[in-house]
Each structure stands twice: as structure tokens, then as C-alpha cells.
Design goal:
Shape: globular
CATH topology of the largest domain: Quinone Oxidoreductase, Chain A, domain 1
Radius of gyration: 20 Å
Number of domains: 2
CATH architecture of the largest domain: Alpha-Beta Complex
Distance between the termini: 12 Å
Strand content: 25-35%
Structural class: alpha/beta
CATH class of the largest domain: Alpha Beta
Helix content: 25-40%
Length: 353
């Protein structure tokens, strides 16, 4: 079968390798239908690392994908041949202290597809995964199933702000929470879709690319601005004099972390969703202390894949607009270059197998 290997910085080669085989009773063999190019993949593509996760070439990349079940292990009960599935690329033990507390995303022995030193990625014609990673749907297309993974990160991030209705200690409603999202790439837009579906109030969103700003505006943001052209804190504070209840930092930049703290009202929450390529980030201790800001750090999607899939199936969320570009596997390098260089108004590039 054909696989896509990151064989050097900005280099992807297509090679032949034997088809994988089921070795455990709970595993399924999937024919890969579509692979999404994720921002974390781009760090590996451009830099060969994310923090301490360093690529050893050649490396099979990718973790966002949809597949069709073509073979099942003897212990598989929830899936059958022919099922089309979305995938949670995190594989956890279910037994350690973290898993027993429901923190599957910080499992002591967590394995994640397409992560250096952990597991092969999904850029291949066939992959083997545990049935627990698969979420079947008869309603969604292969492309929609591929979008479940990034949407599930937005869903998980949004859960940190629940409930979206503010109340007094006595239970009197103070209205809906106001929200900021800094970064309107696929994860920022997924977060926008999730918070709107969960009942957020006014949502403000920013990006440095006009096309993404306009896309966010069309997707439910009450206001969207270009952080290069606009004074974001000034523009938002004009509209929300008391500032925002929660800000999701989805750009992975020091600049947006600083901006997020300035946008938050006293008692507000900062949710860090973006992946920062640098080893350290910093905050204004004065702003954090005086406003008593709470900081949450999001690691992937922790048991939110099913919720994201159901939001798409119900029609409450439509993420189709995010799939802007499609490439055959032979053009995988072009797909990654398009995303890495922000070419041609790309949001989400899909590799169709």
C-alpha cells in the first residue's frame, strides 16, 4: 500500500509498504478515505518538532482522518465491515490514575497517531486502530467525518466555559457570557461553532488574514477583526465596556496571549487552545493578579469526538465550509505547503484517497 512519509523538512515522499495487519482482538483495519492537514502537522513539516516532540525521519504524518472498516478483530462488537467512521487519534489505557479520573487525554501511557515516538500517522491507504477510537455514522460523508477531529477540539475547549449563562449566587440570570477567540484557523473556527452551539452570547474573533476574518463573521461572530489592521482591545472594549468573560487563544502566539489577558474582565477565563512552537510563554503577573484571571490549557479533545459527531449529524453545526482544498495523495507535499504558506485562502486541506 502507499504511505506518505515526512522524509525531511518540507519534504513528503510517497512510498510502498506492506498493508498493516490486525494483531489484537479489539482492532479494526480501515481503508483511509480522507486525511486532514492539521496545524500541528505543519509544525512537524516546517520545523521537525513541537517542543520536546522531535521528528526522527522518515516519519508517517497525520492524525485527522475518516475511514471505512474493511476487517474486524475477533473481539470487535461495535463496528461492522462497511461502516464509515470518524477517528479519535488518542489511544489511552483506561486504567491509570488519569484515565480513572476521566482525564483520558493525559493518560500515563497515551499514544497519539502521527506523534513522534508514539504511533504512525494516518497518511496511508490502510491503518489499524482500536475499535474504541472509531465513531461510526450513516449520515456524514467521508469529508464531514474527517472534520470531526478538529471540531472535537473546539467542543472540548468550549466545555471549559460551560455553562454560558452567567448567574448570581442566588441563581438570578446575568445574561450570556461574552467570548473572544483569537485565531480563525480551523481550530478557532471549530471553537466558534462549538461555543455558538452551546449557547454563548456575543462572540468576537480575530485573525491576520482577511479571508479568515470574513469567514468567521459569516459563521456567527458578532464582530471580527484583523489584528494587523485593527486595535483589537480598543475595538472590543468599545462594544463590551466590561470586557469579555472568556477568551480562547487559538493562534499559538505570545502576542495573542497578551491580548487575551487585556480583553478579559475581572474573574475571566483564558483557555489556551493553540499550540505554541516555542518552549516558554509568559504573562503579565500584574494583569493576572489584579483581574484574578483563571488559565486553562487544552490538550486535544478528551472524550469529545462523539459530541462533535452528533453536533454535525443533528445539523446544529455545519463545518463543511472549512474544507476549502482537496488533493490526491500524490500531491500530499503540495497540500502541506499550501497550508504551511497560507496559500490561496486555505482553511482546511484534505488529502482524498
Amino acid at each position: 500500500m502507499k504511505v506518505g512519509l515526512l522524509s525531511g523538512i518540507r519534504t513528503i515522499s510517497i512510498q510502498e509498504t506492506p498493508k498493516p495487519e490486525i494483531t489484537k482482538p479489539n482492532e479494526v483495519l480501515l481503508k483511509v478515505l480522507a486525511v486532514g492537514v492539521c496545524g500541528s502537522d505543519i509544525h512537524y513539516f516546517k520545523d521537525g518538532r513541537i517542543g520536546s516532540a522531535i521528528v526522527k525521519f522518515p516519519f508517517r504524518i497525520g492524525h485527522e482522518f475518516s475511514g471505512e472498516v474493511v476487517q474486524t478483530g475477533k473481539g470487535v462488537r461495535k463496528l461492522k465491515i462497511g461502516d464509515r467512521v470518524a477517528i479519535d487519534p488518542a489511544i489511552f489505557c483506561g486504567k491509570c490514575d488519569q484515565c480513572l479520573q476521566g482525564r483520558f487525554n493525559t493518560c500515563r501511557t497515551l499514544t497519539f497517531m502521527g506523534s513522534p515516538g508514539l504511533a504512525d500517522g494516518c497518511l496511508a491507504e490502510y491503518v489499524v486502530v482500536p475499535q474504541e477510537s472509531c465513531f461510526a455514522s450513516k449520515k456524514l460523508t467521508a469529508e464531514q467525518l474527517c472534520l470531526v477531529e478538529p471540531l472535537s477540539i473546539g467542543v472540548y475547549a468550549a466545555k471549559y466555559a460551560l455553562p454560558f449563562e452567567r448567574k448570581t449566587p442566588e441563581g438570578k440570570s446575568l445574561g450570556k457570557k461574552t467570548v473572544g477567540i483569537l485565531g480563525a484557523g480551523p481550530i478557532g473556527l471549530s471553537t466558534l461553532l462549538a461555543v455558538k452551539a452551546f449557547g454563548a452570547g456575543n462572540v468576537y474573533i480575530t485573525d491576520k488574514i482577511d479571508f479568515r476574518v470574513e469567514t468567521a463573521r459569516k459563521s456567527g461572530a458578532i464582530w471580527a477583526g484583523n489584528s494587523i489592521k485593527d486595535d483589537i482591545v480598543d475595538e472590543v472594549s468599545k462594544r463590551e465596556p466590561q470586557l469579555l468573560d472568556v477568551v480562547f487563544e487559538c493562534a499559538g502566539e505570545q502576542e495573542t496571549l497578551d491580548q487575551a489577558c487585556e480583553l478579559l474582565k475581572p474573574g475571566g477565563s483564558l483557555v489556551i487552545v493553540g499550540i505554541h512552537a516555542v518552549g516558554r510563554i509568559s504573562f503579565s503577573a500584574d494583569v493576572l493578579r489584579r483581574r484574578e484571571i483563571t488559565i486553562y490549557s487544552v490538550r486535544r479533545q478528551n472524550e469529545s469526538t462523539y459530541d462533535a459527531l452528533k453536533l454535525l449529524e443533528s445539523g446544529k453545526v455545519n463545518a463543511d465550509f472549512m474544507a476549502t482544498h482537496r488533493f490526491p495523495m500524490a500531491e500530499a507535499r503540495k497540500a502541506y505547503e499550501t497550508v504551511a504558506d497560507y496559500r490561496d485562502n486555505v482553511l482546511k486541506a484534505l488529502i482524498i484517497l
